[in-house]
Predict the 3D structure of the following.
Amino acid sequence: MTGPRLVLASASQRRLDLLRQIGIVPDLVDPADIDETPLRDELPPSYAERLAREKVLRVASRHAAAYVLAADTVVACGRRILPKPGDAATARRCLELLSGRRHRVHSGLALVGPDGRMALRRVDSRVGFKRLSAEEVAAYLASGEWHEKAGGYAIQGRAAALIRFVSGSYSNVVGLPLYETAQLLAGRGYCPRCAASS
């Protein structure tokens, strides 16, 4: 028995690893490569949903009769969308903003099935950082773990020692809400074993 292929519309190794953790191995990885600049006055939840939708539609146009999965994860402090730092100065500003505060992590999930229909979901988690000392900030920056991570941290790494609590999906904070992703795929008829045998 064979089934339609699963295409992951993301260049993120974290998302690929998370899917493999629950036994889902995409047949193909095809990053969308879209402009991720937030729109004027765009709120973080809407931004996450919009990017997931744009990514999945861009990639689905290249893969007829396949399942195409896209996601985007946004770290937000209030109405402010935090960047994915490419330099230590930006990462420091993120950490200093998050220090001693709660923030939200929003993920948009989008799936286009073989029939061309799209399903869109959003998952929200809350995260609380301890109050960071100057030494803790410096040590985390020195690790380099912050590079290109939303909000300037990776909860699955050294930042775990800086986080007091997580409310909601932990895997969402890592980069892909696994329960919701599995439910979305199953609800649209995706069969991992069928795809694996194709």
DSSP finds seven helices and seven strands in the chain. The chain has a mean pLDDT of 95. Strands lie at 6-8, 28-29, 67-77, 80-81, 102-112, 118-129, 163-167.
